[in-house]
């Protein structure tokens, strides 16, 4: 029997009151962005933000709850931009979006940091359904500039080791989402694709939780997908909003893990899907893979949710929760 | 090519040569206007939309006059009434709705609208402000309008099968607005398409939009296209096919490194060359700007060169914005005199110079 689990890749939009208060407290310039050493009123504000984002997810009825990543000013580059061995330079475009982040330049050893673990510790007091979220090692390495490690593979391994060190500090969590949009947008070349999968393995080994690797903004090149299947993870994610055909092709051609994550809600458009539509998208995918009964199907938005205004992000979370709870439709 | 440029030459222009000087459009708002906008409808203050309208009128008068004092041949009101280049229009077009701010980077947000149903023309967008501005100056007034591709690309599309279809519908609305502006006397329209810089592969969609935009617009109306910094080689020479008179390009910021792009294939339209940097707060000297203007002669002859800043000046301190315009106009006037005297021998200016000089 397949279990439907409603979740998100995290990175929620800041509540509107927090947008104002944080910009008042921090400023608008790139030098004002988060450094990971907040104290006093700023730290308290972020505590309030996290508490509210967790409550929002619980209220929406999601089965997995993230800490919301309200502090991630630099989106998926966050774990590096707050690291002591990293300096941030100019702001650079975040994939093919009208969003920008500070370029992290790694200038020293990527020692374990513990920034992400702290947030999860706090969120764990509010929920038993905790889901940790991290950039996958390939994505984090691609978003950064390496000025310390000998070459690209050494850097990728160092980033993986750093992320594994972060995971080792995490409190108990049900699921770990590793977001890997760069596997789609800046696909690794021949040979490097195998290294990317090994790097994911290294991070996944650090937790006992279910690990979901979630590429998005489209589908993986089939060779990259074939290598990703070698990684010892519990589920791979498929962005059915951006490209359902190539994603289904990859599964039909190369199989998939026992569980699967499906990006069935558009994280970059304000049009709120009906739960029935979401359910139909899952059922369509399921019908294309008749040979397999999945253990768990994670229903999620394809991308992070920070692209949306708050009301729409919340509505999307509710849609996902309602879709997972719908009575099974007879086919 | 239609010669709709002569109408912008001032009646008593002192030189035979004429380089049309203008600005892209936006200009720093006076601090008091920002404060007035913040205080509007705050219950603590007796300051409502009517008062704000008066403040906007005053600011438009002030900045149009500032453009005149700098000596510009074609002036703008500095877009004093506009908050943001998409929001302003989205508020005036039926079909858009606003759900709240979204992140651009850090704590910088944008009230990104959603197109929730088919877009329709409702109230005029710019006719009132155009009539106001022409009423406070004797100079020709240029009207910048955010282009349909950018209006589509910088919104959430809920209602259309594709962003392309949305862009074409919006282009028809822009066309309707331009018809009204032309009826009101406008002769210089600039379409701003900054989104093209980030998605150059869509240049054919922008071209089709422009076909919609100019349909039925008389030839004596000058149509310009402004595209900010990007990789112009991705859209050139294809963009020369667009039905516009002039391209307004940001090249000073990149130190004219992309100029080669425009000399590789003959530039067959007018060039509005960015000769001062809109992103650097140092004011370029007249001598430096003159050299920048001369770079333009490598691409087009003087009679097809318009002189303009790289982009809107609104992010600069106001006194810097003013000084840049003033130096820019002085540089253009000095270059004109040197052209008359046959002292400039650069590219197309050289070949146009009197043969026996």
UniProtKB/TrEMBL annotation, chain A:
GO terms for biological process: amino acid biosynthetic process; methylation. This is 5-methyltetrahydropteroyltriglutamate--homocysteine methyltransferase. Keywords: Methyltransferase, Transferase. It comes from Halosegnis rubeus. Transmembrane segments: none annotated. The keyword Cell inner membrane does not apply. Residues 87-282 form the Cobalamin-independent methionine synthase MetE N-terminal domain. It holds the Pfam family Meth_synt_1. GO terms for molecular function: 5-methyltetrahydropteroyltriglutamate-homocysteine S-methyltransferase activity; zinc ion binding. InterPro entries: Cbl-indep_Met_Synth_N, UROD/MetE-like_sf.
From TrEMBL, chain B:
Pfam families: Meth_synt_2. The keyword Amino-acid biosynthesis applies. Pathway: Amino-acid biosynthesis; L-methionine biosynthesis via de novo pathway. Binds 1 zinc ion per subunit. Residues 20-333 form the Cobalamin-independent methionine synthase MetE C-terminal/archaeal domain. InterPro entries: Met_Synth_C/arc, MetE_arc, UROD/MetE-like_sf. Signal peptide: none annotated. Zn(2+) binds at residues 226, 228, 250, 311. SUPFAM superfamilies: UROD/MetE-like. Its cofactor is Zn(2+). Keywords: Amino-acid biosynthesis, Metal-binding, Methionine biosynthesis, Methyltransferase, Transferase, Zinc. One of its GO terms (biological process) is methionine biosynthetic process. GO terms for molecular function: 5-methyltetrahydropteroyltriglutamate-homocysteine S-methyltransferase activity; zinc ion binding. Its EC number is 2.1.1.-. Belongs to the archaeal MetE family. Catalyzes the transfer of a methyl group to L-homocysteine resulting in methionine formation. The physiological methyl donor is unknown. This is Methionine synthase. The gene is metE.
């Amino acid at each position: 029997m397949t279990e439907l689990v409603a979740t998100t890749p995290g990175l929620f939009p800041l509540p509107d009151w927090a947008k104002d208060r944080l910009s008042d407290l921090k400023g608008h310039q790139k030098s004002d962005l988060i450094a990971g050493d907040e104290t006093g009123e700023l730290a308290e504000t972020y505590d309030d933000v996290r508490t509210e984002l967790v409550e929002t997810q619980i209220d929406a009825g999601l089965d997995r709850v993230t800490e919301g990543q309200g502090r991630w000013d630099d989106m998926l580059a966050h774990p590096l931009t707050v690291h002591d061995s990293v300096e941030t330079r100019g702001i650079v475009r975040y994939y093919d979006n009208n969003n920008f982040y500070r370029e992290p330049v790694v200038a020293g050893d990527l020692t374990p940091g513990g920034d992400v673990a702290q947030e999860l510790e706090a969120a764990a007091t509010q929920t038993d359904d905790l889901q940790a979220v991290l950039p996958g090692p390939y994505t984090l390495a691609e978003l950064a500039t390496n000025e310390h490690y000998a070459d690209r593979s050494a850097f990728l391994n160092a980033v993986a080791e750093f992320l594994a060190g972060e995971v080792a500090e995490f409190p108990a969590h049900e699921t770990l989402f590793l977001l890997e949009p760069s596997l789609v947008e800046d696909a690794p070349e021949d040979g490097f694709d195998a290294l990317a999968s090994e790097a994911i393995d290294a991070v996944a080994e650090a937790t006992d939780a279910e690990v979901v690797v979630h590429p998005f903004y489209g589908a993986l090149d089939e060779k990259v997908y074939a290598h990703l299947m070698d990684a010892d993870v519990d589920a791979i994610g498929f962005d059915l909003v951006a490209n359902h055909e190539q994603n289904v092709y990859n599964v039909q051609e190369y199989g998939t893990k026992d569980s699967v994550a499906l990006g069935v809600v558009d994280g970059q458009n304000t049009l709120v899907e009906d739960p029935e539509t979401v359910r139909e998208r899952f059922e369509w995918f399921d019908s294309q893979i008749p040979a397999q009964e999945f253990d768990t199907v994670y229903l999620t938005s394809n991308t992070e949710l920070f692209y949306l205004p708050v009301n729409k992000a919340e509505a999307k979370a509710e849609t996902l929760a309602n879709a997972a709870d719908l009575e099974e439709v007879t086919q | 090519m239609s010669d709709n440029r002569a109408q912008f030459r001032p009646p008593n222009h002192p030189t035979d040569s004429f380089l049309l000087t203008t600005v892209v459009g936006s200009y720093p708002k006076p601090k008091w206007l920002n404060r007035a906008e913040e205080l509007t409808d705050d219950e603590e203050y007796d300051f409502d939309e009517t008062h704000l309208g008066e403040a906007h009128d005053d600011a438009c008068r002030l900045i149009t006059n500032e453009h005149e004092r700098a000596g510009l041949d074609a002036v703008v009101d500095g877009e004093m009434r506009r908050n943001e280049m998409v929001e302003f229009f989205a508020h005036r077009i039926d079909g858009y709705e606003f759900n709240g701010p979204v992140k651009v980077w850090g704590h910088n947000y944008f009230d990104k609208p959603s197109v929730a149903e088919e877009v329709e023309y409702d109230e005029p967008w710019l006719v009132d402000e155009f009539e106001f501005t022409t009423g406070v100056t004797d100079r020709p007034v240029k009207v910048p309008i955010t282009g349909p591709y950018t209006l589509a690309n910088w919104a959430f599309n809920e209602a259309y099968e594709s962003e392309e279809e949305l862009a074409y519908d919006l282009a028809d609305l822009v066309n309707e607005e331009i018809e009204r502006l032309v009826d009101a006397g406008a002769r210089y329209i600039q379409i701003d398409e900054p989104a093209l810089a980030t998605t150059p592969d869509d240049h054919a969609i922008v071209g089709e939009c422009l076909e919609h935009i100019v349909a039925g617009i008389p030839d004596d109306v000058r149509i310009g296209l402004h595209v900010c910094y990007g990789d112009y080689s991705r859209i050139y020479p294809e963009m020369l096919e667009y039905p516009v008179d002039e391209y307004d390009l940001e090249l000073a910021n990149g130190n004219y490194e992309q100029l080669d792009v425009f000399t590789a294939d003959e530039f067959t339209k007018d060039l509005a060359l960015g000769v001062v940097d809109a992103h650097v707060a140092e004011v370029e000297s007249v001598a430096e700007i003159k050299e920048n203007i001369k770079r333009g002669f490598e691409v087009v002859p003087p009679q097809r060169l318009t002189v303009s800043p790289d982009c809107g000046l609104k992010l600069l301190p106001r006194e810097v914005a003013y000084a840049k315009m003033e130096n820019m106009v002085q540089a253009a006037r000095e270059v004109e005199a040197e052209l008359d005297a046959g002292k400039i021998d650069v590219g197309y200016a050289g070949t146009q110079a009197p043969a026996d000089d």
